């Protein structure tokens, strides 16, 4: 099984950190290999080339176009995290979302 490299991005990296922890726990439970990075939007340039998918917090829509361009330039998929998954810190829901987008 191939490892999925996932980058969660939010304004300051705090809320994405909680969601990343829930995602890791869900992946472990389902025996899916993941490498999860959660950080602030300001760090995207440092990590974008090293991931399979960039997930952006729903409140970050104002930088969506800029981040999408960076993702496309690096051959990385990009999605906005669904608000219900983000708000509930739903690691299992996010894992299912990621696996669907990467399939």
Automatic annotation (TrEMBL):
Q: Which residues form a coiled coil?
A: none
Sorted keywords for this record are: Kinase, Phosphoprotein, Phosphotransferase system, Sugar transport, Transferase, Transport
Q: Which Gene3D superfamilies match?
A: 3.40.50.2300
Q: Biological process GO terms, please?
A: phosphoenolpyruvate-dependent sugar phosphotransferase system
User: What is the protein name given in its UniProt record?
Assistant: PTS sugar transporter subunit IIB
Highest taxon of the lineage:
Bacteria
What is the native source organism of this protein?
A: Clostridium sartagoforme
Q: What is the lineage of its organism?
A: Bacteria, Bacillati, Bacillota, Clostridia, Eubacteriales
Per the record, residues carrying Phosphocysteine are 10
Supply the PROSITE patterns for this chain. Answer: PTS_EIIB_TYPE_3
Q: Which GO terms describe its molecular function?
A: kinase activity; protein-N(PI)-phosphohistidine-sugar phosphotransferase activity
Q: What region holds the PTS EIIB type-3 domain?
A: 3-103
What InterPro entries does the record tag this protein with? Answer: PTS_EIIB-like_sf, PTS_EIIB_2/3, PTS_EIIB_3, PTS_sugar-specific_EIIB
Which SUPFAM superfamilies does the protein's record reference?
Answer: PTS system IIB component-like
């Amino acid at each position: 099984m191939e490892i999925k490299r996932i980058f969660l991005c939010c304004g300051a990296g705090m809320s994405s950190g909680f969601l990343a922890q829930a995602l890791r726990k869900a992946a472990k439970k389902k025996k899916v290999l993941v490498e999860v990075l959660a950080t602030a939007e300001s760090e995207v340039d440092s990590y974008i080339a090293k991931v399979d998918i960039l997930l952006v917090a729903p409140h970050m829509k104002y930088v969506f176009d800029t981040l999408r361009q960076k993702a496309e330039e690096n051959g990385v998929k990009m999605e906005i995290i669904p608000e219900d998954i983000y708000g509930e810190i739903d690691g299992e829901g996010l894992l299912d979302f990621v696996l669907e987008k990467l399939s």
